[in-house]
Amino acid sequence: MSRRSGILEFAVLGLLRESPMHGYELRKRLNTSLGVFRAFSYGTLYPCLKALVANGWLIEETGDAPEGAPAAALTGRRAKIVYRLTASGKEHFEELLAHSGPDAWEDEHFGVRFAFFGQTSRDVRMRVLEGRRSRLEERLERMRTSLARTRERLDDYTLELQRHGMESVEREVRWLNELIESERAGRDQRAPGSAEQGKKDQSGDTGGLPRHRGGSRPDPSDDTTT
């Protein structure tokens, strides 16, 4: 499975965990809620859905066509199928949520993973955030080294573009620092060993996101940091 199809599978399972959806509605949510999927087609989505059904992670049910769907999307049986997460599909998605390895820190994957942080345990959130920050700090160091080495050979516009890229990475690092600080503060504010705390950690309780302190938060799905 390619990395692209793997993150699509993760996103589809995560959205269907919230509620069953028609293919049209699911594609609309992927387009509007998860920026990395802004430009993808039914030709990409339906093979993914069929594979998830074949694996037993989704089931297909017949239902009414979603309100507002374009006429072209409503022809044939496909438009009337509702996709529902199975028990094994939910279990598989929870396994994916628990993953915090290097691929979860990459640009495309991080944006989608972050979108489902509300369903992710605190410890996994921390590992993903810290991994993402480490990855960006390494990238920033490489960019600074490269700029120092080539500055004299760059024209003003290329130099400005390089600076813009560095500022974008620096801005995301500051944002990650705020998130990590907030996660740690939320954990420290709760009594250790509390039964209620254990339940909240398992359910993905956020402990409160940091208050915005000026400027614009970077969109985790924004590819300007590549």
UniProtKB/TrEMBL annotation:
PANTHER family: CONSERVED PROTEIN, PADR-FAMILY TRANSCRIPTIONAL REGULATOR. This is PadR family transcriptional regulator. It comes from the Bacteria. Residues 126-167 form a coiled coil. Residues 181-226 are annotated as: Disordered. Residues 12-95 form the Transcription regulator PadR N-terminal domain. InterPro entries: Metal_resp_DNA-bind_regulator, Tscrpt_reg_PadR_N, WH-like_DNA-bd_sf, WH_DNA-bd_sf. Gene3D superfamilies: Winged helix-like DNA-binding domain superfamily/Winged helix DNA-binding domain (1.10.10.10). Keywords: Coiled coil. Residues 181-190 have a biased composition (Basic and acidic residues).
